[in-house]
Amino acid sequence: MQYTPDNTQNAGKSLPIDQILCGDNLELIQKLPDCSVHLVITSPPYFQQRDYGGGMGNEKDADEYIAILLRLFCECVRVVRNDGSIVFNIGDKYEDSNLLLVPYQFALAATKTCFVKLVNEITWVKRNPTPRQFQRRLVSSTEPFFHFVKSDDYFYDLNAFLAEERMPKQSSKKASTKVGQRYFELIAESDLSEKEKTAARRELTEVIQEVIQGQTHSFRMKIRGIHAEPFGGQIGGRTLQLKNKGFTIIRMHGNKLKRDMIETSVATVKRNKHPAIYPVEVVEELLHLLTPIGALVLDPFMGSGSTAVACKKLGRHYIGYDINAEYCEDARQRVSETPSASLRLFESSDEIPTLNNSIG
Ligand SMILES: C[S@@+](CC[C@H](N)C(=O)[O-])C[C@H]1O[C@@H](n2cnc3c(N)ncnc32)[C@H](O)[C@@H]1O
User: Which fold has domain 19-162+258-351?
Assistant: First the structure.
């Protein structure tokens, strides 16, 4: 995938590349040209959760909070390129034991007000949520990252998202001894005839061998009377196989399914005072998915600098804003301690790819 830089769009406009600016994001973002950044990824203050010493988050009700956030969101839409993306991570709030669903209210309003499409709600699953046990409700351990786009031509590198080479390796011994064994038990428990059971065991043994030898990535088996009919229930290939043979095997080739979920631990950064840091790993996965190397990324609520750290590690450029001067200073320090990617970055704003890019 290659970008062809074209300088015309940003000529004469200075972009504060790789800088974290202190101030109100709604004022600062006005200085950015239209369609100048590849990705906005950010986490605004959640509704009535914390006091960051200024800025938004403590509006009198959720409607006002959403209205204020939408003003910034529509500006983010303006500055994002037509092939770019906007990712907002928002947490929820209980009011009088009632979950407000603020993130979803915001996402719906955003699609209506700022003319974007919602591609996914990517769920961040926290391995170690705050250990606070409630008697009358379950512990919240997920947060949404909403992925919005301006057009259907958004940059998307699915292979780079949660790429297998970055994932912890599964023990191949465990995989080879366990794979598919449960289906043998299900065949035995089923109402299939002895002839059908013999055929099912034979085909199951074959597909297990294919997985062990790496010819097939994985598979699913459906057995008549045990599993539901394929979704949709049309009289088609698989439904007929279930009826006539008593089973069907669905082989999956190529990469693992890319699911709308990222699981990490909650972030802590040594000596950093910021109370609400999101994990650099989550940002990294979304940079891999939604930006090419050398892209320009904006975080209008930069906080402790996690977005900038992820950008620096992966060879993307960033612009960050935060209203709290102390957070800005700490974020700059944190970024300066992060090693750069050993990749060639664009040297100046004139080199940042613009709207005319061809994605090959
Ligand atoms: C949830 S935190 C962001 C945390 C960040 N994602 C991280 O990993 O550290 C929200 C940040 O928005 C900042 N903020 C609030 N209102 C703002 C505004 N109007 N302009 C700029 N920053 C603002 C707060 O100071 C706070 O640091």
Answer: Rossmann fold (3.40.50)
